[in-house]
User: What shape does this take?
Amino acid sequence: MPEDYREMWGSLGLNLEAHDGLLAVLSDAYKNIYLTQPNRPVGMGYFDFVISEVHGLRIVELLKDKAAGKPVIGTFCVYVPEELILAVGGVAVGLCAGADVGAEEAEKYLPRNTCALIKAFMGFKLAGLCPYVESADLIIGETTCDGKKKAYEVFDEITNKVYVMELPNKKSADGKVMWKHEIERLAAKLTAVTGKEITLEGLKNAAKIVDEKRRALQRLSRLRSADPTPISGLDALLINQISFYDDPARFTTKVNELCDELDERVNKGEGVAPRGTPRLLISGSPMAIPNWKLHYIVEGSGAIVVGEESCVGERNFHSLLQDFSSVEEAMQRLAERYLSINCACFTPNDERFDDIATMTQTLHANGVIHYALQFCTPYLVEAFRAKNAVEEAGLPFLRIETDYSLEDAGQLKTRVEAFVEMIKDGGQA
Assistant: This one.
C-alpha cells in the first residue's frame, strides 16, 4: 500500500499502527485464499486490484466526491434503496464488516453474546480501523433484528450520524403501507441532508444505474449454473461483496467484461473444477468482506459453491425495479421491490424457502449448506424449516453455526468434507 495514504488515514482519525497491522493480515489472507486458486479468470484482476486499494484509492475517490459536494452515505443492509441515494447525487457504500476486529472495544458497549457482524461494525469504528465510517456523512441502519436495532442506538451516540429505517415484521397490507411510508421518510431525510430535491429525472437515472448493476450480477449468477462452472464460488462471493462499495457504473462494466470471458469458458466447456464436481448452495446469514471462511473450506474440500441465498448474493440482485412515470409511483415501486427481499426478519417467511428451492434447481446444486452466525436468532431458527424444505426436495442439507474466528476451521472442514463425500456417494443427510 502506498505510503502517502497514511496522511489521509491520519486525517480521518484512524489508529495508524493498528490499521497497518490489519492491512498486513488481510493482505496475507487474501494472497493465501484468493491468489493461490488455479485457473482463475483473467477478469478477476480488476477485483484483486479493488481489494488491494480497499482502504486506499477508493477512499481517495470518496473524499474527492465529498469535496465536490456529493454526500457519502453508509449502509448496512440491502433494504436501503441505493436509487434514492444516487437520486440526490450521493455515493452509497456498504459498512458491514466480516472480520473479528475490535471485539474487546465493542464488548464495552455490547453483550458478549452479540452476533459477529454487529460486533464487527462496532469494533472497526471503536478500534479506529474503518475509513468508510469516518468518510460517511450519514449512516443508514434498519430494524432487521433486535441486535442491530439496539446497536444502532449506541452507534449513533458514538458517531452522531445514524438514521434508522423501520421494517415491518410482516408483509401484510398494513406492513406494505408502513414500508412505503419509510421509503418516503428516507427520501425526505436525504433531501434534508443534501439540500437536493428528488426528481423524476434523478430517479430514472439512478434506477438505470442500479438495475444495470443488478443485471450484471444476474448474468454472473446464470453463468455459475454451467457444469463445469467457469468461476469459483470464492471469486463470485468477492464480486458480490465488492458490489456494495465500488463505483456502480465502473463495477457493472468490469462484471460484464468478466462475464464475456466466462461465456467463452462455458462455450469451450472449461471450468475451475472438473465436470461433475459436487455443487453446493450456501444459504443464510450475510458474508461481508473479509468473511471468506466457509467458501474457502468448501472449495478446499472437493466441492464448488455455485450460489448464495444471502444478502451478499441473490437477495441483493434478485429483481429489477419496475418502471414508473412519477416520483410518487417511484416510491411505490421502490417499496414493492425492496419488500420483496426475503430476509429471515419476516414472519412468516415462506418465500425464502421457495427461493432456496428455485436456486437449487436453476444452479443445479447437489446440496445445501445453511450458514448462520452465532447469536443470529432469525437465521438460526429458520434453519429448521430450511432443512425440511431442502430434504423434501431430495437434497442433502448441512447446518453450520459459526463466527468470524478461525478457531473452528478444522472442525468445520471435517464436517464439510464428510458432507461432500456423502454427496459423491449419492447419500442423504
